[in-house]
From TrEMBL:
This is DUF956 domain-containing protein. InterPro entries: DUF956. The lineage of its organism: Bacteria, Bacillati, Bacillota, Bacilli, Lactobacillales. Pfam families: DUF956.
Length: 120
Protein backbone atom coordinates (compact mmCIF):
# COMPACT_ATOMS: atom_id res chain seq x y z
CA UNK A 1 0.00 0.00 0.00
CA UNK A 2 1.23 3.46 -0.89
CA UNK A 3 1.81 6.00 1.89
CA UNK A 4 0.08 9.31 1.18
CA UNK A 5 2.13 12.49 1.00
CA UNK A 6 -0.64 14.57 2.61
CA UNK A 7 -1.78 14.67 6.21
CA UNK A 8 -5.10 16.30 5.31
CA UNK A 9 -7.18 15.77 2.16
CA UNK A 10 -8.86 18.93 0.85
CA UNK A 11 -10.38 17.69 -2.42
CA UNK A 12 -10.82 14.26 -4.05
CA UNK A 13 -12.23 13.64 -7.54
CA UNK A 14 -12.25 11.00 -10.26
CA UNK A 15 -9.59 11.76 -12.85
CA UNK A 16 -7.53 10.55 -15.80
CA UNK A 17 -3.75 10.77 -16.08
CA UNK A 18 -2.53 11.02 -19.70
CA UNK A 19 0.88 9.42 -20.23
CA UNK A 20 0.81 7.61 -23.53
CA UNK A 21 -2.23 5.60 -22.50
CA UNK A 22 -4.86 7.05 -20.19
CA UNK A 23 -4.81 5.83 -16.60
CA UNK A 24 -8.04 6.19 -14.62
CA UNK A 25 -8.11 6.86 -10.91
CA UNK A 26 -8.54 9.47 -8.21
CA UNK A 27 -6.96 12.89 -7.81
CA UNK A 28 -6.26 14.09 -4.28
CA UNK A 29 -5.40 17.70 -3.45
CA UNK A 30 -4.03 17.99 0.05
CA UNK A 31 -2.06 20.22 2.36
CA UNK A 32 1.38 19.00 1.23
CA UNK A 33 0.92 18.05 -2.42
CA UNK A 34 -1.04 16.84 -5.42
CA UNK A 35 -1.58 13.08 -5.73
CA UNK A 36 -3.04 10.71 -8.32
CA UNK A 37 -3.82 7.06 -7.54
CA UNK A 38 -4.85 4.51 -10.16
CA UNK A 39 -8.03 2.48 -9.68
CA UNK A 40 -6.64 -0.74 -11.16
CA UNK A 41 -2.99 -0.79 -10.08
CA UNK A 42 -2.10 0.41 -6.56
CA UNK A 43 1.56 0.83 -7.57
CA UNK A 44 0.60 3.27 -10.35
CA UNK A 45 0.55 6.70 -8.69
CA UNK A 46 2.00 10.22 -8.79
CA UNK A 47 2.84 12.39 -5.80
CA UNK A 48 3.85 16.00 -6.49
CA UNK A 49 4.80 18.20 -3.50
CA UNK A 50 3.69 21.83 -3.70
CA UNK A 51 7.25 23.17 -3.58
CA UNK A 52 8.03 21.09 -6.71
CA UNK A 53 5.23 22.66 -8.83
CA UNK A 54 6.37 25.51 -11.09
CA UNK A 55 3.22 26.27 -13.14
CA UNK A 56 -0.24 24.84 -13.78
CA UNK A 57 -1.53 25.28 -17.35
CA UNK A 58 -5.22 24.77 -18.13
CA UNK A 59 -6.83 24.37 -21.56
CA UNK A 60 -9.69 26.87 -21.51
CA UNK A 61 -12.45 26.97 -24.14
CA UNK A 62 -15.58 29.08 -24.63
CA UNK A 63 -14.53 31.77 -22.18
CA UNK A 64 -13.93 29.38 -19.31
CA UNK A 65 -17.11 27.37 -19.64
CA UNK A 66 -15.23 24.22 -20.72
CA UNK A 67 -11.86 23.12 -19.33
CA UNK A 68 -11.04 19.60 -20.54
CA UNK A 69 -7.60 19.11 -19.00
CA UNK A 70 -4.75 20.72 -17.12
CA UNK A 71 -0.99 20.24 -16.98
CA UNK A 72 1.19 20.44 -13.88
CA UNK A 73 4.80 21.38 -14.67
CA UNK A 74 7.44 20.49 -12.09
CA UNK A 75 11.02 21.58 -11.47
CA UNK A 76 12.72 18.21 -11.94
CA UNK A 77 10.30 15.59 -13.28
CA UNK A 78 8.76 17.29 -16.32
CA UNK A 79 5.04 17.79 -16.77
CA UNK A 80 1.96 15.71 -16.02
CA UNK A 81 -1.37 16.03 -17.86
CA UNK A 82 -4.61 15.30 -16.01
CA UNK A 83 -8.33 15.52 -16.69
CA UNK A 84 -10.71 15.50 -13.73
CA UNK A 85 -14.43 14.90 -13.68
CA UNK A 86 -14.91 18.35 -12.12
CA UNK A 87 -11.95 20.41 -13.32
CA UNK A 88 -12.95 23.82 -11.99
CA UNK A 89 -13.20 22.76 -8.32
CA UNK A 90 -9.93 20.82 -8.74
CA UNK A 91 -8.16 23.91 -10.06
CA UNK A 92 -9.66 26.02 -7.27
CA UNK A 93 -8.25 23.59 -4.71
CA UNK A 94 -4.84 23.72 -6.43
CA UNK A 95 -4.99 27.53 -6.50
CA UNK A 96 -4.95 27.59 -2.68
CA UNK A 97 -1.41 26.16 -2.76
CA UNK A 98 0.07 27.48 -6.02
CA UNK A 99 0.51 31.27 -6.47
CA UNK A 100 -1.97 32.92 -8.83
CA UNK A 101 0.76 34.10 -11.22
CA UNK A 102 1.77 30.44 -11.71
CA UNK A 103 -1.73 29.44 -12.89
CA UNK A 104 -1.93 29.98 -16.65
CA UNK A 105 -4.23 29.46 -19.62
CA UNK A 106 -2.86 27.42 -22.51
CA UNK A 107 -2.38 29.12 -25.85
CA UNK A 108 -5.19 28.70 -28.35
CA UNK A 109 -4.52 27.21 -31.76
CA UNK A 110 -4.73 30.67 -33.35
CA UNK A 111 -2.23 32.10 -30.87
CA UNK A 112 0.18 29.26 -31.69
CA UNK A 113 -0.16 29.87 -35.45
CA UNK A 114 0.27 33.63 -35.01
CA UNK A 115 3.35 33.09 -32.84
CA UNK A 116 4.94 30.89 -35.53
CA UNK A 117 4.48 33.59 -38.19
CA UNK A 118 5.58 36.57 -36.09
CA UNK A 119 8.80 35.05 -34.79
CA UNK A 120 12.05 35.73 -36.63
Amino acid sequence: MVQSLNTKSEYVDAATWFRGIPTYGKVLVGDKGFEFYSDNNPNDYVQIPWDEVTIVVADVYFGGKYIPRFKICTKKNGSFIFAARHVKPTLRAIRKHVPADNMRKALTIWQKIKRNFTRN
